[in-house]
Amino acid sequence: MEGSPEPASPGVIREGDFAVLKRDEVFKAVAVARRRKIVFEKQWFCLDNAIGHIYGTTFEVTSGGTLQPKNRVQEAATETKEAGADNRNIVDDGKSQKLTHDDIKALKDKGIKGQEIVQQLIENSTTFRDKTEFAQHKYIKKKKKKYEAVITIVKPSTRILSTMYYGREPGKINYLRYDTLAQMLTWGNVRAGNKMIVMETCAGLVLGAIMERMGGYGSIIQMYPGGGPVRAATSCFGFPGSFFQTLYDFPLSKVDSLLSGTFSLKKLPLESEENTAVAEESNGSVDDKPVSVQEADTECSAEIAAEDRQPEEQEIMDIPTEGDAFEDSKAKGTTHDKLKKQEERQKKLIEAADLLKEKNADGLIVASRFHPAPLLLSLLEFVAPSRPFVVYCQYKEPLVECYTKLREKGGVINLKLSETWLRNYQVLPDRSHPKLMMSGAGGYLLTGITVINESVKSGDCSEQTDEEPTSKKRKLQEQR
Amino acid sequence: MSFIDYRETIKEGDTAIVFLGHESMFPVKVQHGGKTQTKYGVIRHSTDLIGKRYGSKVTCSKGGWVYILHPTPELWTLNLPHRTQILYSTDISLITMMLELKPGSVVCESGTGSGSLSHAIIRTIAPTGHLYTVEFHQQRAEKAIEEFEEHKVGHLVTVKNQDVCKNGFGITHLADAVFLDIPSPWEAIGHAKSALKREGGRICSFSPCIEQVQRTCLALEEHGFAECNTLEILLRVYNVRTISLPLPDLGKGTGGNARGESDQGSPSDQGASSAGLQQGNAQFKSGVPPREMVGHTGYLTFATKSLF
């Protein structure tokens, strides 16, 4: 079953795929290519051998940088026989391990399998036999984690990429925790066939999540600040090209003119040129490594860019994004190509403007580093009545302000300010409990539903009274 | 109306949501000649609803008004007739994302219960996916079929009236994901495994008690599932309020240098004469958590079936 399945079979790792490497709880997004060195968790290897295997396969990293598929069956090898009852006689003298640091290093240099090193460590631990069964378990687990270099290659999904981003680069996604993102998709009723408006500065993660849920059906208009939309995380999903055909973008700076009817194409900045400049700049700044996705973000905010420089954070991804490749070739391309591209962009922009002008979008999702109130007040104009909207903010106070302003303006009902807490559990026989550490911050959401806002003046006060708590409110909350 | 795509206007046969006020709403089946009573008076379907736009304000006979909303799985969850305990949107959101559901996914579910999760799954996997849902309670199974037809999503779901622990889901190697909300999920793990595609898939089990989780995790491990992960998600809702805290009288009023530390900075020089008694209030807006909240619904255990 590990041979070389027919290329058409789904779930097989292929060259050119976008994949995610997983080691314990650590993820890294990569583009699958032959003869390319990848560094992950202080190890380097090539993905050549992984090609043709099924997603979900676990590999062992050998010292030569190749990957060997590993069967899970062999794991129960280290059975423990003797065990102590408690730790009353275990003294920490720092001498329980007979192997020295140098011995271990020598073992590693000899290229001995991680599993064997762990076995040696156990045999040379004088206290191992006196430890309780549970403590032995924990010891083995810890050593395995350190010496057994196994990685699993998995298919990218919102689940994996949002966990990855929250774990490794939360600053890039405004600390949007994955369970909060899950709430946004549900409360926004994101599904195939919708016409969605998205305004995000979460590296394109929120956009990707929405695209996954829409499966290529319907349309998405991404509103962007600055010179162009950031889609570094979006490209990690590895969506087929067809998904991008109904993906539009529209500059935030033109929203006002679109709403007031003074929008014209002539005043638009030449975005493609700006983008090219950015891409070239970052190409120069990273040595010979393929442009890491983060570089595309740098224009976004100086604050976030500062975080980029931490080498640890650089490791999260190793993908030459479609966008970058695209910009690259364009930079080298002829002026004719340039003009053609620009024409295409203009055409798509007009389409986006037309879609917005219909003012019948099926939902609005906002998750950005900007103050949400002005975004919401303007962008809701483009949404049809009886449609949900969801606004994310890392902080609660701006959403309190949104709530107040929306109430004043009218045209929305069922406003709800909320937050979710997420708790992780360790579940083991006789050792089940919540995990020691939990995330303390995942951001806040303001959700609501649009309605027809007729007679703004008279409607205002009556709406207030109508929305005041009724006796049913408490009942409903209790049910929930 | 449909639960899987938006329509502009209300038509005969639609399920619409009547929104009365703050989180007070109910579903209504729109019918020619139909009437619905609300505390604001009666709504006549033929004249008040049919042909109107979703999101409209509808004036009732006593002069009060309500909004008519397009149905969504989330609104349905808040308004559906309970035949069992149901899953709410907070848990549903996490389940949907962690099971990696999307258009085209084939999903198994048991039990169907009141169909709260079913509607959300159908919404997500439409138009090309399918839900196989198993409910051992005959009446509930029949009621669910009826509802799916009424909501025009019957073509996306198959309801089977059988015991999932004994008879499984009725499909083999077809599903991308399995969801279990039954009292003894560990008895269904084997069936879940064979329902999932050969190359793998995701599973989730919802259980209120930790002992159930324990047994489920053991069963998952025995059947070779990987990435076993147990989570719990809690929703905290905040009420937005303007809060006014009185400023304390520290006896500084008559001294002339009374300095209110309030946001308004109101007790200034000219108010110094009355400051001795009335120091004023500090006002601010806040998101205030309710006195009580839902502390536990259930543990969500997720795992992956991979090839080995």
From TrEMBL, chain A:
<dbReference type="GO" id="GO:0031515">
    <property type="term" value="C:tRNA (m1A) methyltransferase complex"/>
</dbReference>
<comment type="subunit">
    <text>Heterotetramer.</text>
</comment>
<feature type="region of interest" description="Disordered">
    <location>
        <begin position="457"/>
        <end position="480"/>
    </location>
</feature>
<dbReference type="GO" id="GO:0005634">
    <property type="term" value="C:nucleus"/>
</dbReference>
<comment type="function">
    <text>Substrate-binding subunit of tRNA (adenine-N1-)-methyltransferase, which catalyzes the formation of N1-methyladenine at position 58 (m1A58) in initiator methionyl-tRNA.</text>
</comment>
<dbReference type="InterPro" id="IPR017423">
    <property type="entry name" value="TRM6"/>
</dbReference>
<dbReference type="Pfam" id="PF04189">
    <property type="entry name" value="Gcd10p"/>
</dbReference>
<dbReference type="GO" id="GO:0030488">
    <property type="term" value="P:tRNA methylation"/>
</dbReference>
<comment type="similarity">
    <text>Belongs to the TRM6/GCD10 family.</text>
</comment>
<keyword id="KW-0819">tRNA processing</keyword>
<keyword id="KW-0539">Nucleus</keyword>
<protein>
    <recommendedName>
        <fullName>tRNA (adenine(58)-N(1))-methyltransferase non-catalytic subunit TRM6</fullName>
    </recommendedName>
</protein>
<dbReference type="GO" id="GO:0006397">
    <property type="term" value="P:mRNA processing"/>
</dbReference>
From TrEMBL, chain B:
<feature type="domain" description="tRNA (adenine(58)-N(1))-methyltransferase catalytic subunit TRM61 C-terminal">
    <location>
        <begin position="64"/>
        <end position="305"/>
    </location>
</feature>
<keyword id="KW-0949">S-adenosyl-L-methionine</keyword>
<dbReference type="InterPro" id="IPR029063">
    <property type="entry name" value="SAM-dependent_MTases_sf"/>
</dbReference>
<protein>
    <recommendedName>
        <fullName>tRNA (adenine(58)-N(1))-methyltransferase catalytic subunit TRMT61A</fullName>
        <ecNumber>2.1.1.220</ecNumber>
    </recommendedName>
</protein>
<feature type="binding site">
    <location>
        <position position="181"/>
    </location>
    <ligand>
        <name>S-adenosyl-L-methionine</name>
    </ligand>
</feature>
<dbReference type="GO" id="GO:0006397">
    <property type="term" value="P:mRNA processing"/>
</dbReference>
<keyword id="KW-0489">Methyltransferase</keyword>
<feature type="region of interest" description="Disordered">
    <location>
        <begin position="251"/>
        <end position="290"/>
    </location>
</feature>
<dbReference type="GO" id="GO:0160107">
    <property type="term" value="F:tRNA (adenine(58)-N1)-methyltransferase activity"/>
</dbReference>
<feature type="binding site">
    <location>
        <begin position="114"/>
        <end position="117"/>
    </location>
    <ligand>
        <name>S-adenosyl-L-methionine</name>
    </ligand>
</feature>
<dbReference type="InterPro" id="IPR014816">
    <property type="entry name" value="tRNA_MeTrfase_Gcd14"/>
</dbReference>
<dbReference type="Pfam" id="PF08704">
    <property type="entry name" value="GCD14"/>
</dbReference>
<keyword id="KW-0007">Acetylation</keyword>
<feature type="binding site">
    <location>
        <position position="135"/>
    </location>
    <ligand>
        <name>S-adenosyl-L-methionine</name>
    </ligand>
</feature>
<keyword id="KW-0819">tRNA processing</keyword>
<dbReference type="GO" id="GO:0030488">
    <property type="term" value="P:tRNA methylation"/>
</dbReference>
<keyword id="KW-0539">Nucleus</keyword>
<comment type="function">
    <text>Catalytic subunit of tRNA (adenine-N(1)-)-methyltransferase, which catalyzes the formation of N(1)-methyladenine at position 58 (m1A58) in initiator methionyl-tRNA. Catalytic subunit of mRNA N(1)-methyltransferase complex, which mediates methylation of adenosine residues at the N(1) position of a small subset of mRNAs: N(1) methylation takes place in tRNA T-loop-like structures of mRNAs and is only present at low stoichiometries.</text>
</comment>
<dbReference type="GO" id="GO:0031515">
    <property type="term" value="C:tRNA (m1A) methyltransferase complex"/>
</dbReference>
<comment type="similarity">
    <text>Belongs to the class I-like SAM-binding methyltransferase superfamily. TRM61 family.</text>
</comment>
<dbReference type="InterPro" id="IPR049470">
    <property type="entry name" value="TRM61_C"/>
</dbReference>
<dbReference type="GO" id="GO:0061953">
    <property type="term" value="F:mRNA (adenine-N1-)-methyltransferase activity"/>
</dbReference>
